[in-house]
Amino acid sequence: MATAFFRRMGGKVVEYWKNIGNDYWIVTKETAENMKKSKIKSAIVISGLGGLLYAYKTNPTQDHFWESLALARHQLVLTPETIRNARTSKEVRARTEYLNQKRLAYYNCVFFSLITAKPFGEDCSLYETHCKSLKPSLFDLPRRIVDIGAFNRWLLLDKALVDLDVSSLEWVEHNQELQA
């Protein structure tokens, strides 16, 4: 009796997958025919899909952020204090403080990633952390964004590190010497 049941069900399963395969084959053929008719539209759609696939494959992870932050701190330590950019130091220090306070939250948005600062750390037990009406709203999100990750890069951290070894104070002193 059990073998008859599996024979009957097995035949239905095989038929189901044959129908699915046939449907996909027909869609593939029709898509190829439509692509031959309008080549420019096809090129634009394929480029867009390729870009989305590339963004998906190169979406940075939370571990990638920790590694990038560690490398930024390492570069900061290796740069002498006299030529270190104050804005870069401030940006890296702020991210490090958020990390130490356990206030960073990672969101994977499929094609890009967000790192946001939570108002309180995980260990905090204040009333404000538990009250639902005091939780930050979605409108506060832009102010809480610490970094945006896309294409294997953390955009705001990379922007902060551009002039790591160019101190604005150094240029002020140089301009004062030239004017004197």
TrEMBL record:
InterPro entries (UniProt xref): TIMM29 (IPR019322)
One of the Pfam families matching this protein, by short name: Tim29
Top-level lineage group: Eukaryota
GO biological process, one term: protein insertion into mitochondrial inner membrane
One Gene Ontology CC term in the entry: TIM22 mitochondrial import inner membrane insertion complex
Protein name per UniProt: Uncharacterized protein
Organism this protein belongs to: Plectus sambesii
Lineage per the UniProt record: Eukaryota, Metazoa, Ecdysozoa, Nematoda, Chromadorea
